[in-house]
Description:
Elements (H helix, E strand, L loop, with lengths): L10 H48 L4 E5 L5 E4 L1 H6 L13 H11 L6 H13 L4 E6 L5 E8 L5 E7 L1 H23 L4 E5 L4 E5 L1 H7 L3 H4 L10 H17 L3 E9 L5 E12 L5 E10 L1 H15 L9 H18 L3 E9 L1 H8 L1 H18 L4 E6 L2 E5 L7 H12 L5 E3 L2 E3 L2 E9 L6 H18 L4 E3 L2 H20 L5 E10 L4 E12 L3 E3 L1 H11 L2 H17 L6 E5 L10 H12 L6 E5 L8 H13 L3 E7 L5 H7 L4 E4 L1 H5 L5 H17 L3 E3 L5 H10 L3 E2 L14 H4 L18
Parallel strand pairs: 16-17, 19-21, 21-22, 22-23, 23-24, 24-25, 25-26
Antiparallel strand pairs: 1-2, 1-5, 3-4, 4-5, 6-7, 6-10, 8-9, 9-10, 11-13, 11-16, 12-13, 14-15, 18-19, 18-26, 19-20
Amino acid sequence: MPWDFNGLVSQHxxxxxxxxxxxxxxxxxxxxxxxxxxYRRNWKQLNESSGxxxxxxxxxxxxxxxxxxxxxLMVWNERYRSMYNIVPDRIWRGCTVRDLLDARIAAGTFxxxxxxxxxxxxAALKLGETFILTVELADGRIINVVNRPIQTGGWVAxxxxxxxxxxxxxxxxDARAFLDTIIENVPSPIIVKALPEKRYVLLNRAAEIxxxxxxxxxxxxxxxxxxxxxTAAIIxxxxxxxxxxxxxxxxxxxxxxxxxxxxxxxxxxRLPLFGPDGKPQYLVSVIDDITDRKRSELRIEHMTHHDxxxxxxxxxxxxxxxxxxxxxxxxxxxxxALLAIDLDRFKAVNDVFxxxxxxxxxxxxxxxxxxxxxxxxxxxxxxxxxxxITPTGPQPAVAEGLAARLNAAFATDLEIEGHMLRVxxxxxxGIYPQDGADAATLVANANAALFRAKVEARGSVxxxxxxxxxxxxxxxxxxxxxxxxxxRDEFVLHYQPQAHIDGTVTGFxxxxxxxxxxHGLVPPSTFIPLAEENGTIVALGEWVLRxxxxxxxxxxxxxxxxxxxxxxxxxxDDLPKLMHQVLLETGLSPKRLELEITEGVxxxxxxxxxxxxRRLKNLGVRIAMDDFGTGYSSLSYLQSFPFDKIKIDKAFxxxxxxxxxxxxxxxxxxxxxxxxxxxxxxxxxxxxxxLKFLAAEGCDEIQGYLFGRPEPIAEYAVIVGRAPAxxxxxxxxxxxxx
Length: 738
């Protein structure tokens, strides 16, 4: 022992000191033991906290990085490394931001400019601001990065994959945009108001158009702020009723005065949208603006009963009116008149000046007639046909006065499109009840009177007589018989010679006759108009063409044959094709066939008619202009088509002896033919004087009774070579020029 206590203390004291030392040592040892235990406990807690921290870090959904004040990486989790596919040995404690960016660039997971990124990050951290950016990777993932500075220096960065959220947001945005597009483009106006204030919060384009005001002017405002006061009051009342009832309300057709689109006709459906508290939160109105439809319906209704050209009532309206007038007259025992009216010379206007001028003329005629017929019912039945129903009153005085005023209205020329035109009215009158107690009879008898007036004197007025009804019925029966005449083989051809001016017969014109079983031989002037009216002229024309060509082909002498074509024939089927077929079937040489047409063929569709004529001429046949001088546009037609012959109308030849004008016209036509190198034929030559005049003027050919009447071809057997030249002719050929 370093110290010797035997000489200093007694044994008893030594024991006491020793016991004290033991106690002190025990306390010291206890203190040390306690300290050791406390250290061990704190170490354990620290390890446990670190484990919890590590566990929390590694189980985060976000990638985590922590950097110190020198911008070195101190902490990161596996989520961060795997998120960017960083190779493990490319990330370590203490690496720099640029090291990390290079690792991500190598992995293809950093699409930005590293220098620019680092500059922006450093600038934000220096200012103590959080630096946030969203990055879309090459593989389509979208990462949200938040760099947040910490007080001790450095910063914490979290990297969150928000791809699914962004996709969901985009889908929601797309759905919202799609819904907005649908609502915006729904053709029906849609209006949404917020309750309870009833302020406008949504209007689509259709609503904007419907109200005639920009939606910016309406959004956030009340109806009374921009609607007319009366309209706003009605809207507010309807809105309040819906709020109180909470039921969907449908409102039938009603008028609404809009702020900028006038009065509109609409139907509407209004329904509430309820909030979480069960109370109406929004009010939705879906409007069907039916204004245009209503206007269209009214136009259609008007068109159904009115003529599109003149805006006069049409046949349907006429039928309704005459039925109502008959009922009224029958109940009151009074009389009324029906006037059937035909516009004279209208066809000539159409032919000369065209249909556009004709339409303007019809409108002016309608206007004048409306002025005269004030108080009476005026209708356009069709074409140039009109009808007037007079009010009940004394007849025939009322009808006579009205007819006189109508004719007086057209006593002067009408200026139409710069042309002075003269038209007249031909009028047939039927009186109720003596001329018909029902609509069908009264109309038929008024038309019979009109028919008689047109036959006897155009521009006149005729009242119905019983004899007219008989004549009209006979005409209709004749027209029906005409439909079966070809089947019954009732038509025959007569042939009239055509001669050179010296009397030499050069050919014949084929003229059709109708051998009616009851009426005998019906002249063409009677049945041709009827055939053109009911369309049988097409079949009749084909029959004439075949029969005449077949007959001419059988003649021993190659004389020409002339056939008339009706304007109606040009409107049906393919005439050149038919002509070619007939020539092939009959064997007739095309150069022997001459087709005669009037101006009527060229009227209407002039271009088509000329095209058909050119095709006919290409077959080798000749085309002659018949009745030259009686129309309005003969000269212009000669310029438009190379006719092979001009035929002067017989009316000029008939007037030759007592009309200097006729002689002048004949001279002019002959001179015209000579200048155009086109032969001229004079029709209707019946006297030696006429023949001498034509010969002196240099006319090329003649046709008329002086040289032969239309007869069966047997009468001209010698001329066509079927009988010897010295055989006794069955006719007397007169007239030799010179």
